[in-house]
Amino acid sequence: MQATLNGNELVLNGEINENTNFEGTIPNNLPNPCILNLSGIQKINSTGVKFWIGYWEKQVASGLKLQFKDASTAIVEQFNMVKSFLCGGDIISFAAPFICNGCNSEWSPIFEVKDVKDGSFPKIKCPKCGSDENEIDEIEEEYLAFLTR
User: Fold this and answer.
1) Quick one: which of 68, 56, 66, 55 has its CA closest to 113?
2) Domain edge (last residue) among 80, 95, 110
3) The domain spanning residue 63 has which CATH number?
4) Which band of pLDDT confidence, cut at 50, 70 and 90, is reported for residue 94?
5) Does residue 131 sit in the same domain as residue 144?
6) HEC string of the chain?
7) Domain total of the chain
8) Which end of the chain is more exposed for a tag (fewer CB within 10 A), N or C?
């Protein structure tokens, strides 16, 4: 995993696994609140989840407030499976896997939490063909379960 601090946003990229060293990768003196941009996290395994929770719970206990931005589908899976994965943070936006019924394109647009509060996604257009005949490539209510926690 790589980490880059850009103002009050910490951008994380790569995989979070048994080789991830949060203490050695994440800069000291994080802004507060700290916005974690998670669009570049491609995979996270069970050991990575354990390291994640251990690191961020310690930071939150020392007063850091977390906000999650552009969470990748890999991160959303963890929001849904591991209740403590949020470490008390707030989700601002997240990706969701969509498929176009017109041209069969797949993509993962970003949604702000405020736009899906009612438990369903707003209508969007396919970036390839412009069709609005598309749908989430998951079971919608299961994918959005993290919103009701």
Assistant:
1) 68
2) 95
3) 3.30.750.24
4) very high
5) yes
6) CEEEEECCEEEEEEEECCCCCHHHHCCCCCCCCEEEEEEEEEEECHHHHHHHHHHHHHHHHCCCCEEEECECHHHHHHHHHCHHHHCCCEECEEECCEEECCCCCEECCEEEHHHCCCCCCCCCCCCCCCCCCEEECCCHHHHCHHHHC
7) 2
8) C
Confidence at 117, pLDDT banded by 50, 70, 90 = confident
**pTM tops 0.85:** yes
pLDDT digits (tens, 9 = 90+) for 29-65: 899 999 999 999 999 999 999 999 999 999 999 999 9
Domain around 113: 98-149
Of 109, 108, 99, nearest to 129 (Cα)? Answer: 99
User: Do 31 and 81 belong together in one domain?
Assistant: yes
Structure tokens at 143: 């994918």
* Strands 9-16, 2-6: pairing kind: antiparallel
Do 132 and 67 belong together in one domain? no
Structure tokens at 5: 């601090």
Triad 59, 61, 85: Cα angle to 5°: 70
